[in-house]
């Protein structure tokens, strides 16, 4: 069976379903980044009477809060507090319990906590931080547990396109929510953003429980030929039972640490650009919130396109034997870490006009997605039996990086408004270059000895 035949297949449909779930989850996470501009976009002292009935109605539709830049940074990054501590447990448990139930339940709670965000904001900054942290727990479970799906559903020669397509939903979700959030804020008020996307997430949750099955052998809709192709292609890599985790061997494995450090850089870059692009556009380009949403969303549209293309390219290189697997992983990791660093510095050094700034901003965001077919899928090459757990570890360290970079960026912006963005982008570039060098030296793409099926390793 060649790559082309996978497109009308059920596993391709599953990838689209997972893409939709990631669109919803990322939309629920990203909408706060742009609504924050409306939530604090006022110079009127809070608590003072307003004689204008028009302004009074607008304040009811768009409540405004006096949150300082550093508080905004904590609120924007509060989701990481929840995601950080759930990554490793979610990765491990996804190899034991039903991924269908884990992902579906997590998507439901993502939607629920999103719809509670306006109420929490009205109670105070502490309440909204707690609410977003709880949301982060649910998102962390959904984001990490879903990777275990491809251990049983993705044939080796199709891993690039299936995983990149499903994960690209996060990028597409960012584009969609940033595109329409500004319009919703201006017409219906920013609280409606959370209600609308929360309701969509609940509807998609029901669809997930109906259509998805943990194992292709149990699905009633998949064809017999496709079922046999998937199971036969994975016969040497998928274990029927969970063995003890070889923790000591993992800790001594340099390829594992190469993946962890590469993932750390990816999450730092992705989180920083995702969270602060609307704020950067607002402070540097001075546009309306509707235009801000469009300009903030465009980079994610191009990132989504790049992720789809990178998945097709990696599988093409593999099936035609053009490049070795390790070469492909290192190539796309280099593109996904080095290019964003370069384009980020170009924003502060080579941007002399509105259009040049937008172009470099798009390129910096879009090229990050190349790493989806590099370091972010590499754990499936070296230890498919422990992919969910290793993915959880990678996300754990990555979320720590995202949390640190987000809070540090908020602090930099509040302390030094003159050269603040230069310091932010230079920090991003330094992290990426150092991590990339380590990855290029120590990364591997063959199954490691401690991950072989024959081993019975104990803690």
Would you give an account of this structure?
53% of the residues are buried. This protein is 74% helix and 0% strand. It has helices spanning 10-39, 53-61, 69-93, 99-123, 125-145, 149-153, 159-187, 191-211, 224-233, 247-252, 254-284, 289-319, 325-349, 354-366, 378-382, 387-415, 420-442. The protein has 17 helices and no strands. The protein starts with 9 loop residues before the first helix and ends in a 17-residue tail after the last helix. The chain is mainly alpha-helical.
| SS-derived structural category | mainly alpha
Number of strands: 0
Mean pLDDT across all amino acids: 82
Shape assignment: globular
How helix-rich are the residues, as a percent range? over 70%
Low-confidence stretches: 1-7, 42-57, 455-459
- Give the count of helical stretches: 17
First CA to last CA: what distance?
40 Å
- Beta-strand residue fraction: under 5%
Helices and strands, in N-to-C order? HHHHHHHHHHHHHHHHH
Radius of gyration over C-alpha positions, nearest whole angstrom: 22 Å
Largest sheet: none
Secondary structure blueprint with pairings:
Elements: H1 10-39, H2 53-61, H3 69-93, H4 99-123, H5 125-145, H6 149-153, H7 159-187, H8 191-211, H9 224-233, H10 247-252, H11 254-284, H12 289-319, H13 325-349, H14 354-366, H15 378-382, H16 387-415, H17 420-442
Helix pairs in contact: 1-4, 1-7, 1-8, 1-11, 3-5, 3-16, 4-5, 4-8, 7-12, 11-12, 11-13, 11-16, 11-17, 12-14, 13-14, 13-17, 16-17
């Amino acid at each position: 069976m060649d790559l082309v035949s996978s497109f009308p297949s059920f596993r391709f449909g599953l990838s689209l379903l997972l893409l939709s779930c990631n669109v919803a989850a990322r939309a629920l996470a990203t909408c706060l980044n742009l609504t924050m501009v409306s939530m604090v976009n006022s110079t009127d002292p809070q608590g003072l009477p307003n004689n204008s009935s028009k302004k009074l109605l607008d304040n009811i539709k768009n409540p405004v809060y006096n949150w300082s830049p550093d508080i905004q940074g904590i609120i924007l990054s509060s989701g990481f507090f929840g995601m950080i501590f759930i990554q490793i447990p979610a990765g491990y448990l996804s190899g034991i319990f039903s991924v269908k139930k884990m992902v579906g339940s997590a998507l439901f709670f993502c939607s629920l906590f999103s719809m509670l965000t306006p109420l929490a904001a009205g109670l105070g900054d502490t309440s909204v931080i707690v609410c977003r942290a709880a949301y982060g727990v649910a998102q962390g479970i959904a984001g990490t547990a879903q990777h275990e799906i491809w251990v049983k559903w993705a044939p080796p020669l199709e891993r690039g396109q299936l995983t990149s397509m499903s994960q690209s939903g996060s990028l597409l979700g960012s584009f969609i929510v940033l595109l329409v959030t500004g319009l919703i804020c201006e017409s219906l008020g920013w609280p409606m953003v959370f209600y609308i996307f929360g309701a969509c997430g609940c509807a998609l949750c029901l669809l997930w429980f109906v259509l998805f099955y943990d194992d292709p052998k149990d699905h009633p809709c998949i064809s017999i030929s496709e079922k046999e192709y998937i199971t036969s292609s994975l016969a040497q890599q998928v274990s029927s039972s969970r063995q003890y985790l070889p923790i000591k061997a993992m800790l001594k494995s340099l390829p594992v640490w190469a993946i962890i450090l590469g993932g750390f850089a990816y999450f730092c870059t992705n989180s920083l650009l995702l969270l602060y692009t609307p704020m950067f556009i607002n402070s540097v380009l001075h546009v309306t919130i509707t235009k801000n949403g469009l300009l903030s969303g465009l980079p994610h549209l191009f990132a989504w396109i790049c992720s789809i293309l990178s998945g097709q390219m990696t599988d093409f290189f593999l099936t035609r034997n053009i490049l070795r697997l390790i070469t492909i992983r290192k190539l796309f990791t280099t593109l996904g870490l080095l290019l964003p660093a370069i384009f980020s510095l170009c924003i502060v050094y080579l941007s002399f006009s509105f259009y040049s700034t937008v172009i470099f901003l798009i390129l910096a965001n879009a090229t990050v997605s190349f790493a989806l077919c590099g370091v972010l899928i590499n754990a499936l090459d070296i230890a498919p039996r422990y992919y969910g757990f290793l993915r959880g570890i990678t996300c754990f360290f990555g979320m720590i990086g995202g949390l640190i970079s987000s809070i540090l960026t908020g602090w930099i912006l509040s302390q030094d408004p003159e050269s603040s963005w230069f310091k932010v982008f230079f920090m991003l570039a330094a992290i990426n270059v150092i991590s990339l060098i380590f990855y290029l030296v120590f990364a591997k793409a063959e199954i490691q000895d401690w991950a072989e099926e024959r081993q019975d390793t104990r803690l």
